Amino acid sequence: MTDLPDLGLRRKVATTLPTEHGTFQLYGYDGAGGLGHVALVMGDLDSSLGGPPLVRVHSECLTGDALGSRRCDCGEQLQAALAEIAREGRGALVYVRGHEGRGIGLLAKLHAYALQDTGVDTVDANLRLGYPADARTYEEVAQILRDLGIDRMRLMSANPTKAEHLAALGIDVVARTTLPVADRPENAFYLDTKRRRMRHDAVEALPDAWAQLLTGNVPDRAVPGTDAALVERYGPLVRAGSPLTLAQLGQSIDGFIASRTGDAEFVTGEQDRTHLHRLRALVDAVVVGAATVAADDPRLTVRAVPGPNPVRVVLDPRASAPREAHVLRQGEARTLWLVGPDATAEPTAEHVEVVRVPVSGGAGFAPADVLQALRDRGLGRVLVEGGGRVVSSFLAARVLDRLFLTTAPLLIGDGVPGIRFDGSDRLTDALAGPVRRFALGDDVCTEFDLTGRHRAES
Ligand SMILES: Nc1nc2c(ncn2[C@@H]2O[C@H](COP(=O)(O)OP(=O)(O)OP(=O)(O)O)[C@@H](O)[C@H]2O)c(=O)[nH]1
Ligand SMILES: [Zn+2]
């Protein structure tokens, strides 16, 4: 190992850092002109025990790492590297301060971004501002690696120059592996420039998971983190094809979707809204009852995420929906207004089609008749999203494939009920799993897989 000058860099503090990938040892070092560096370590790094460990030398990128920027791939590489280390149960990530903007600093990088907004590539932008294309140095990194007992390692990086710098400082880089990143419209030019002008490897570029799901494909590999979670959560719905009947409801933990005055803003939080919009984007049609249209005047479009608007379906046997309701007036998506055979209803706008459906028994539609009317119009994938009575009636009729029931940590005490149906006398007959559960901020979404409960075809 080359003898390095002692830069006076010291490990100052040791603590732990629990992350979504597991708990790491965290070491704080001085250096980087007072900014300090951080190393995250998992497992025993001794090469003689488990071979050369997996190491990521990660250059600080405030915009990518902390703010989720899609101009670069830094944030995704950071998460992917931690996930890889956790998968092996062993390795280290050195988070290098002072490397921001390839060593030119944050504000200079932002100036370089402004130039890139005019079409200049990332290399020329640095040069035009009077900086080198890459001003990063690695002496302090080598000192930290040495402090961690790492003299041989497998480096996770697409940048051969980084490996060469570390090798010149006496670190034996026995292998270099690339991390999967998503090729997205926003980062394509940057990634391409790194490959053409900075010798970066062409990394296996994984497609944007949500864009794939929207086109009906379930990617078999996704960038760890958000993309992987999207595939896990929504992949089964895409695979299920058509027909498919889903329901979604957000309610307080004591089972109400609104207070007794009808105040429903907001029972569940922002993340549940995003989840609802994702479900809307993945189906052909969304179904709501006329009472929900009257109470909430929903738009039923996809706004929180990219994706197409579904056809909007209003269940209104007596044609009582307010004629001024958003879905009956605003044409950003088609609306099917399902009314009883004798109800008085005329289309309120070009995008509205009045559909006659038989009224069964009481004054309501049979869920199976509603689904049939939609299938007759090519709408096989359906989301029933409110209110409580409509969702409950589809549940009771055993036509749902899945129910997404989100509960908020809120006790309303009394109000508009959520899921209600004729219960059973014995708990063994109650509706139980299989379920999957996922956290949506403070709320918990429980996904009931009901495919085994369908009413037998008569
Ligand atoms: N000056 C400048 N810096 C950038 C730009 N985009 C990202 N960066 C910085 O580049 C650094 C990361 O370097 P990259 O070239 O993306 O990747 P790398 O570290 O060389 O290689 P990998 O190990 O594969 O990530 C981070 O410090 C970012 O802040 C840019 O357009 N201009
Ligand atoms: Zn970045």
TrEMBL record:
Active-site residues (renumbered): D134, R136
Cofactor: how bound: Binds 1 zinc ion per subunit.
Residue sites binding GTP per the record: R56, V57, H58, S59, E60, Q77, E100, G101, R102, T122, S157, K162
NCBIfam families named among the record's database cross-references: PRK00393.1, ribA
Entry similarity comment: Belongs to the GTP cyclohydrolase II family.
Function according to Swiss-Prot or TrEMBL: Catalyzes the conversion of GTP to 2,5-diamino-6-ribosylamino-4(3H)-pyrimidinone 5'-phosphate (DARP), formate and pyrophosphate.
Official protein name in the record: GTP cyclohydrolase-2
Organism: Georgenia deserti
Originating gene: ribA
